[in-house]
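Two quick folds needed for the group meeting slides. Do the first one here.
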Amino acid sequence: MDYAKHYKTAKTLYGVFMVILYFLVVASYLTGAIIAISTTLTYALYIGMGVAFIFFVMACTVSVFGKLIVTNAYEIMKIRNEILNSENSMPEKIEAITIGKIENDQDLDKLKELYLNGMITDKEFKEKLSEYITSN
């Protein structure tokens, strides 16, 4: 999936939406001003300013949160894509581990750690453990 293409599309739509909102801010203010001048209704100017303010608040909100959402969504998609396509995301099991003779508790702890991490099989673990038990 081409996330860069979707990001550009989202960014373009965000930009278009912002232009429309700012156009509505200016248009509502000018409409109120024109009505106020032509009819001498000062309330029309206040209504136009109020509507312009509402659109301005909407534009600011969309500007802040829209930018965050678009940017963060792209970053999240990039990270997700890297994880899914990464060859190193899951370490391969080490095939050949040679385990020497277990002589003390430290060696036993290392053996247990190898077993818990899935580096050695049950059979190998039981063999080495039985060797350690019989030798001590």
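Then this one, please, same format:
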Amino acid sequence: MGRGFGRGAKSVAIVTHAQVKSAGKKTPRGLRSVRQKKKQRYQKKHDQDGQEELEKSLGLSKQEKNMPMTMAQQIAAIQVPHIINKRQKGLKQLRKQIIAAVKNVRRSSTEKGKRKAQKQIEKMQKLQAKKKSEDDDAKSDSSE
């Protein structure tokens, strides 16, 4: 007895030890390419959505012009001029260049954060001073 793939035979469920409840039907050779194409089409369609969501969550979506990059994006965009030759021991120099570039990005990022925080503090102080002066004006007007 064969596997049931004689003339006019339909696909027969053949369960192997590796297949569990999700044991699929074994397809005849003639239909394999059709099923593969359908499967690939389905996967492409659904992988596209997943890929877009993943990129959004990682912040890798296309940036608009003049938008500030995240630190991770800045570090990923580091370009190193040193090229390693197989015979040279240039890994040490390359490593130093990369580390220096990353330190530079991190330092500039912290400086930018400090400047932003300082501006925010100054803004709050101005608002408080303005509010205080308005309160004083209101008190002086009511006392007259």
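Slide caption for protein two: The CA atoms of residues 2 and 48 lie 41 Å apart.
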